[in-house]
Design brief:
Chain lengths: ~450, ~180
Amino acid sequence: MVTSQPVLLEAVGVPDGHSLQSYRSRGGYAPLERILKEKQPVDVIDLVKASGLRGRGGAGFPTGLKWTFLPKDHPGPIYLCINADESEPGTFNNRILMEDDPHQVIEGIILSAYATRATTAYLYLRYEYPQSWDRLQAAIDEAYAAGLLGKNILGGSFSLDLYLHRGAAAYICGEETGLIESLEGKRAWPRIKPPFPAIEGLFRKPTVVNNIETMACVAQIARRGVDWFRSIGVPADPNNPRDPGSYGPKLYCLSGHVERPGCYEAPLGITARQLIEGQGGGVWKGRKAKAVIPGGISMGLLTEAELDTPLDFAGPGKVGCLGLGTAAVVVIDDTVSIVDFLHNSCRFFAHESCGQCTPCREGTAWSLRMLERIRAGKGRLKDLELLAEIGNTMGMMPGSTICGLADGAAWPIKNAIKKFRGEFEDYIKHSNPNGWMVTDAVRALPVINGH
Amino acid sequence: MTSTTSTTSPISAISTRRILTPEMVAKIEALAPRYPTRRALTLPALHIVNDALAYVPLEAVVEVAQLLGLAPAEVQDTLSFYAFFPQDKPAGRTRAWVCRSISCALRGGEQVLDHICRTAGIEPGGTTADGALTVEPAECLGACDFAPCMLAGKTLHKNLTPESAEAFVRDARARTASSS
Ligand SMILES: Cc1cc2nc3c(=O)[nH]c(=O)nc-3n(C[C@H](O)[C@H](O)[C@H](O)COP(=O)(O)O)c2cc1C
Ligand code: SF4
Ligand code: FES
């Protein structure tokens, strides 16, 4: 088991750890004070670039590099959007950061706004986090009162307003341009890119969208330095010039069939098995894992044999998963039918597809209908081909959709059928002994609660 | 126009039936300086109405649109996308979302949803006849460390069991009975 002193989670379990006073006593806001006095915005960008920090929201894009895409010498305003929509099934680390250490997040936001020259930041918070809302609002009020937010922060020339904005229970608001549309008061239909938000984003102004955990990392890099951050994690592969490495601590969310579900801080690159057996206390009830989701349901599945895969930005992709995603590790024990898993996944995406792109809207709904049929004992082997075909044709990677939700819907389908094909075939043959070989068109069953 | 008759004109009849109270309007306007467009107030305004009324009737949509300088269709377009704001009738006094996504499902979330609905005598999405409780299936609530879980109002109910689910329904009913 890999252990290290938690940094991002240092306030967890500390009485009143969410208060300004507690945050200050741990060294918080001193880096901000120093940087606002001594450094220019470009220095902060360079600091974050040098740290190798990659966005924690799912795509792993280098944060400092993203900030440099903003136009130079723009008259403003430039907007910073903090993505706290956190709706990827299995993921809850943003919630813990906001509830237990909101000032760490806010310091990261102020530093990031300074770096990007944003003077207004909106924190888009999912509706389902009322406790986070209250903690954040209280912390924001404290920060304004202490001169850390508002006009002329800490007596300097930099000013920043930070506002909370509440979502309305839609997963797609986490996609950065869906978030922007939603903030503008419209349906959260992701935009066709380019233009990217850095050029034309919120209210058609240059905009940066960053995740909550990314903000917490920025605060810690400012406090502890680049060398500290780069001493943790997996260095860039020298044989692959396109690998930016996986530096820093990461918050892994462990849930499902483990003895001790929870949010654990570990160096990037810890393996799924180490996490499950160490922090997680093993698969529950002494059972074996059948499959493990490596980073939120969109990422696909690891088999038991693949559990030694390092959970860094490059690891899950090497065994056919979509990526590290949100590092939400969900354990599925060997009593669970993989058909039920895939049904749950397909239902989620059919429910959450925004409906703009035909392959996604129809593909997610069709795959759900097929899984309903298979579970109703009317499955055919042909359905597996059809499912695989849907999985291969919808998404940004095949180039048929506007956003990545469809890729996230496709990956569990592709992985499940590829890695557990035998189980699907057995299920279909046993549950539909007279019809599993039928290949002509069949009628759909009524579907409840998917839309 | 001066009117000497005592009959109420249709116009004033409508205006006395306004849904948005001055308090709601004040709350919405207080947020206006935060955004460079009025349209960005759409979701905050819908939340303010919904917090007060437990639904957003069509009349309120029209009034929000007037307030923000939008077409009612623009507000309705946004509202309907989220499938979050009830429009026909108010949600129950307690609105509960039971998670059915993967981590909760693995630990019995779907059975909990069934159980709560059966105890309350409603279908998922329904409201009890006494108006005490609305139960809806939810996707991941971001509390998978406490699976299976449910958000009821602002309270997160953790590690639900059939027993705690039943107790929850009983309590919700009792609160409504004692307050009416
Ligand atoms: C369907 C979909 C849902 C997403 N949901 C979230 C989310 O809830 N939170 C988040 O931070 N990023 C989410 N993302 C990624 C964002 O688009 C964006 O990459 C991220 O917020 C950037 O922040 P980062 O660079 O700090 O990671 C989602 C992406 C897609 C395609
Ligand atoms: S891929 Fe799906 S969720 Fe994304 S924009 Fe298209 S229809 Fe909407
Ligand atoms: S799956 Fe239920 S809270 Fe995440």
